[in-house]
Amino acid sequence: MLPEMQELIDREREKAKRNKIKNRPIVFSTYVMVLVFLCMFGYIIYYMSDKAERTVANASNKRQDSLSDFVKRGDIITSDGTVVATTEVSENGDEKRLYPYNGLFAHVVGYNNYGRAGVELSQNFTLLRSHVGLDEQIKNDLSETKNPGDNVILNLDYNLQKAAADTLGNCRGAVVVLDASTSDVLAMYSSPTFDPNDMDAVWQTAHTEEGESSALLLNRATQGLYAPGSTFKVITAMEYIKEHPDYESYTHTCNGTDIYNSVSIRCSNSTAHGTLDLKSSLAKSCNTSFADIGANSLDIDSLADFSEDLLYNKDIPFEGDASKPVFKLNGESDKSYIPQTVIGQGDTLTTPLHNALIMQAIANGGHMMEPGLIKRVEDAEGDVVKEYKPKSYGQVIDPQVTKDIIPMLEEVCTSGTASQYMAGKSYTVAGKTGTAEYDNNGNCNSWFVGFTSSDKPDIVVSVVVEDYTSNQISGTYVASAVMDAYYAGK
Fold first, then answer.
1. CA gap 57, 385 in Å, rounded
2. Residues 194, 217: contact at Cβ < 8 Å?
3. Could you tell me which of 40, 421, 391 has the C-alpha nearest to residue 185?
């Protein structure tokens, strides 16, 4: 090869090498842009298939209201077919939201003006969607008629809701009934209630001094925070069982009053219960026995961890507004806080729904289920659009501990503090009473939380009645009536 030709080839190779080096940033940028494009395209596909509907359905999305220009809001119906919210259309086309049972379902179903609340809020998008057939949609469009919205079917049972309201009467408080295996919400009643058909008057009353003191719009079942009183002894007892496999050998001599960690603890009416084991301590709700357990026999950090396993200091997995339960005690706390805390006083706070979930987990072998309010969605023709399945929260209690505690909870109902209303029924009841002081004058709220048919649990009932000191209506009395209503319908 001629020297001139070789020199030319070498120059061209050197030039190509330099160009390749120069082009590297361009090539890299091209690859990056292609990758970014592919990622964006992939996210769009993912968003449209998985997240778009949830974004539109978010209760805070104000654009949902525009759907009401084309769709008549669907009905809200209980599991037994009772329509608890519907839309009435006048001859001139004006729409009015009606609640046929006035205040009976007010807190759980909610309202649709002055903002929204309850199911009317959480299921707003669902109620403003329509899945009627294409032929009917075309027909409605041609006649300038709105399409009928989908209907929301609740797990609520009318008879249980009515029994809760009738028995609670004028007392302030709340009742929650759950399916023992699925945590489906069968009843949820809060008193005092209000009439969502007349929100003008309700809103005006709620902002008066009297209305504010009564917390009229507060759903006490999910948002009312109360000291759990002696219902917390169930958690204390389970923690003791966990830490002491020989729990059956536990004994305590109750003299009616005693001092633990410099704190004076007395039993109800200073009753001296005598010598007790753990089962009779729970059945008689002996304060000194449980204060003794807390002060001398428990790992307080372990009790705190167990309480958090049972959703204290955690968000309740519920589709509506729910207050977070409070438990402040730990191993670094002043020891003087222990005696009151382990018997359900002190700074501990819970809601009726939360207390029901703890008992549901016990009834279900330690497996807690998330409370479910919605059963399914149907179109206006009754065809199922969406089915809601029970959701597991997880295993929160050792199954063996639940087996150990259930006979003790049965004893509470056969010969203990709940026996006046729970003994002698045609079905078994396992549960716990609670009397929780809310001031320094001895005034208290009354609790009952428990479940029926302990061999194969049916329902969980949680009741709190405020100001038991004055009205003398106990949570046990209310729970008994609700349980009887359940089995009367079987």
1. 15
2. yes
3. 391
Token reading at 68: 């009401």
Q: What is the mean pLDDT of residues 45-56?
A: 46
The DSSP call for residue 287 is: H
Task: Yes or no: say if 315 and 323 are a contact pair by the CB < 8 Å rule.
Answer: no
Structure tokens at 8: 């030319």
Contact yes or no for 468/435 (Cβ under 8 A): yes
- What is the total residue count of the chain? 490
Question: Using alpha carbons only, how large is the chain's radius of gyration in Å?
Answer: 30
Give the whole-angstrom CA distance, residue 93 versus residue 237.
61
Confidence of residue 415 (pLDDT cuts 50, 70, 90): very high
- Amino acid identity for residue 482 in this structure: V
Tell me the two tokens of residue 7: 């020199």
pLDDT in tens, 148-168: 999 999 999 999 999 999 999
- pLDDT score for 58: 47
* Closest-CA residue to 432 (of 364, 357, 359, 484): 359
**What pLDDT is recorded for position 396?**
98
Spacing of C-alpha 272 from chain mean position = 38
DSSP string, 102-149: TTTTHHHH--SSSS--HHHHHTHHHHT-----HHHHHHHHHTT-PEEP
Return the residue matching tokens 């497996």: 367
Task: For 109-152, write each residue's pLDDT tens digit.
Answer: 999 988 899 999 999 999 999 987 767 776 766 666 888 999 99
